[in-house]
UniProtKB/TrEMBL annotation:
Keywords: Coiled coil
Organism: Wolbachia pipientis
Coiled coil: 37-71
GO molecular function, one term: transposase activity
The protein's name in its UniProt record: IS110 family transposase
Keyword Coiled coil: yes
Domain of life: Bacteria
Domain Transposase IS116/IS110/IS902 C-terminal residues, every copy: 73-157
Keyword Ribosomal protein: no
UniProt-listed GO biological process terms: DNA transposition
Length: 180
């Protein structure tokens, strides 16, 4: 069930990327021959239909598996996490019980800071680790921004970090960790 959800989610994400590519071509359709513009429009409609079919398959899968549906509804109660993000988290996090603690889950998602040092004197500002699931990290970015602005717990946490002089993107990374 989790594997199927993961495949459906990743297929949907890939199709959305393709739709963006096709829509970029359609922005300049006035300059294209009519046949080419029509082909791009047909392709866009086809991709949109496939995305909708996959969304319906995901909804059916959630309805069929009680535990998945419960976890999905639980994720939706978190301010900042919507339907798309909840599905992404369910699809990309294998078994939540396999992680000992939240730090291990954050490391799996690749939302832990990576300190950069060179010998004893050169210190670069910390960045998000690129180890871990790129797809999960990508799915958490916008929910973290929304939570930073609308979730009272994460808002106060982010304000504290700002007062300590943390850079804005470091604060977003911390909000991503907090959401997990």
């Amino acid at each position: 069930e989790l594997k199927k959800l993961k495949h459906l989610y990743r297929c949907s994400a890939a199709l959305k990327d393709e739709l963006t590519l096709v829509n970029n071509h359609l922005e300049k359709k006035e300059r294209l021959p009519k046949e080419v513009a029509n082909a791009w429009e047909d392709l866009a409609m086809n991709i949109e239909q496939r995305i909708e079919t996959i969304k319906n398959s995901i909804r059916e899968l959630l309805k069929q598996h009680k535990e998945l549906l419960e976890n999905f509804q639980l994720l939706l109660t978190i301010s900042g996490i919507g339907e798309k993000s909840a599905i992404a988290i369910l699809a990309e996090v294998p078994d939540i019980k396999a992680f000992r603690d939240a730090r291990q889950l954050a490391a799996y998602a690749g939302v832990i800071p990576r300190n950069i040092t060179s010998g004893s004197s050169v210190y670069a500002k910390p960045r998000l680790s690129k180890a871990g699931s790129r797809t999960l990290r990508k799915a958490l970015f916008f929910p973290a921004i929304a939570a930073k602005n609308h979730n009272p717990i994460i808002m106060t946490f982010c304000e504290r970090l700002k007062e300590k002089g943390k850079h804005n993107m470091a604060v977003v990374g911390a909000a991503m960790r907090k959401l997990l």
